Amino acid sequence: MKSKDKKLIQVALYGMDERTYKTMEMFLKGPCKGIAVVVDEQNAEIDLIDADYIKARDVLDERQSQTPERPIILLSLQELSLSGTIYVKKPVQSPDLITALKQGNEILHGGKVKKRAGSAKQDAEPKVEPKLEDKTESTVEEGEADKKELYKEQQKTRKHRTARDLTEVGFSSYMGHVDGVDFSDPEQVLLASYNPKNHFLGYVKTAIKVAKEKSRILQLNSGWKSLVIFPHSNEIWLDAGDKQLRIYAGLEIKKNSKNSMSLSPIDQDAFNFGEKMENFDDIDAFIWKLAIWTSKGQYPVSIDINRPVYLKQWPNFTRLVVTPHAMRIAALLIDGPRTAMNLADALNIKPQYVFVFISAAKTLGLLGQAKRNADILTVPPEVKPSKSKGILSRILGRLRGE
Amino acid sequence: MSQYKIIFTGPVGAGKTTAIQSISDVEPIKTDAAASDMTKKRKSATTVAMDYGIMKLEDGEKIHLYGTPGQERFDFMWDILTVGGLGLILLLDNTRADPFQDMQFFLDSFAGFITETSVAIGVTQMDLSSKPSIDDYHKQLQKSDMKPAVFAVDAREQKDISLLVQALLFTLDPGLEDE
After folding, report:
1. Whole-number Å distance between alpha carbons of A318 and B159
2. A240-263, pLDDT tens digit by residue?
3. A195, A295, A382, B93: which could join B14 in a potential S-S bond, CB 3.0 to 4.6 Å?
4. For chain A, what are the domain ranges?
5. Domain boundaries, chain B
């Protein structure tokens, strides 16, 4: 075995996890026809580095300083042109890697590389600086700061907690209801709107906008609970739990109370969060749920209920409260504009669920109102069931039953 | 009986193995673990380098969860894996040098499969690297006229992976309801 291996090019692999390492061994043996064999770094003739590995820059520097005579092959998705290295583009094709290994072998034994073949390139002089990111250096420099930030993050346990704790099924009874609106009456449904400006939601949105524009930490003084906005980290701190927020969100703010709303800058270090580090929330997650609890099944007054709406992108549902049927609504709406009532009909669901979704998505800026006449004149296509509907439904049931 | 599959792909370290583990009803078969009892010689000859898990449905049907080999260079296996697949879960590691390039690479590589089925994208490690943001991913995707679900995920969190797979299912059929 040893004598056979001596004829092979001996390579060492870097920047690969154990599984990839083994697969590369197989790749060299199989598709590369056994041109090379993987050995440890002391015995290698050529170094083969995954240049997309996060610490590839360090590995490269180390290899070049420790064994400067040894040829280096870099594998990367992005084109690299780096002095003293041979580049092979990913996904690696066996002819390219074989060519690169032969080039390396020629360099090793004093020969000259006559031509470039395939996507394997060897550069004596650099043309472009490599884009290998040296993330390690900054990590070291910022190590202590990172630790502090990590500690802070660990204290902020509320982040995404509402999204984690509330399932779609569990949410139904959590949405709340509106007095004086009979949602079984089609005419009353169309009138079931609310104005965010008359609720806490409107003030919070304005406060966030100001904080971001001024790039300052601001406190919203509302005469209720303290709320602090951190625009740099996109966080909100509220001195209240979800239950209190849900109740307050649904209340209209009286005109005379509006005058008591104000914003004041605060010094983060001086502000006393007490023991309530868990009260931090991501801004998007916060205003999403605030919009849901403000809506209580109504749609925002700025939406023309007779015109179609469209979704600009999927909401980041893993970090937001998933309201009933929200994913189905999103999947349908991402395909094209529909009116709220058409959505409810197409999915055979209560309009309140559509209104709640529209409220939350609009608040986050993910939802727009179609303006083209074509969107109004044409009837949206029917929802056609997939050929695999049966198995897909069963998978869904399995996932939701967990 | 048909063999139903969901394919998990993405670069090394994006969390494919962990994601499969999160929703699999059996301990996922990792190729390295499967080979560990064998002799060294046998081990190198039998490594297949992919992950595999199973979701068992109530009626006894099994959904096979396949994780593609992590390194992009081994894409010769992908065509075989995707035959009969229901859809694609693409996991991206936000701490990688160029996650957009990773994303484009995998979307291009699986373009045919995605056209036939659909894709949902999960971005991992966002707690370590918040940029690019989820919005940035959407902007990038819109250049290719694509609007898939893109979620921040922790591959260890069953709920995150479950929601990602659910998004894939609803993309395939928004009219779906639990059975």
Report:
1. 8
2. 888 899 889 988 887 666 667 888
3. B93
4. 2-123, 158-377
5. 4-172
Chain B nearest C-alpha distance from A47 (Å): 17
Chain B residues within 8 A of A133 when measuring between CB atoms:
97
Q: With a cut of 0.85, is the ipTM above it?
A: yes
> For residues B150 and B153, what is the distance between their CA atoms, to the nearest angstrom?
9
For residues B109 and B75, give the distance between their C-alpha atoms in angstroms, rounded to a whole number: 8
- pLDDT tens digit sequence for A320-348: 999 989 999 999 999 989 999 999 999 99
- pLDDT tens digits, one per residue of A17-58: 776 777 788 778 777 878 898 988 888 999 999 888 878 888
pLDDT tens-digit map of B86-123 = 999 999 999 998 999 999 999 998 999 999 999 999 99
Task: Test B55 with A314 for CB contact under 8 angstroms.
Answer: no
C-beta atoms of B4 and A391 within 8 A? yes
d(CA B99, CA B110): 16
Nearest residue, CB atoms, A52 vs list B96, B142, B167:
B96
Q: Contact, A300 vs A195, CB < 8 A?
A: yes
The highest-level CATH class for domain A2-123 is: alpha beta
Give the list of residues 6+ apart from residue B63 with CB closer than 8 angstroms, or none.
A391, A395, A398, B4, B5, B6, B54, B55, B56, B57, B86
**Domain spanning B4-172, CATH class:** alpha beta
- Are A327 and A167 a contacting pair, CB within 8 Å? no
> Does pTM surpass 0.80?
no
Give residues with Cβ within 8 angstroms of A339, minimum separation 6. A305, A306, A307, A308, A309
Q: Which residue is associated with the tokens 């709220």?
A: A340
- Considering only alpha carbons, which residue of chain A is nearest residue B50? A19
Helix axes of A351-363 and A340-347: crossing angle, nearest 10 degrees: 130
Name which of B91, B65, B86 is nearest B151 in CA terms. Answer: B91
Looking at the partner chain, which of B23, B101, B164 has a beta carbon nearest the beta carbon of A78?
B101
Most B CBs within 10 Å, among A23, A89, A284, A322, to test the B interface: A23
- Rounded CA separation B63/B53 (Å): 8
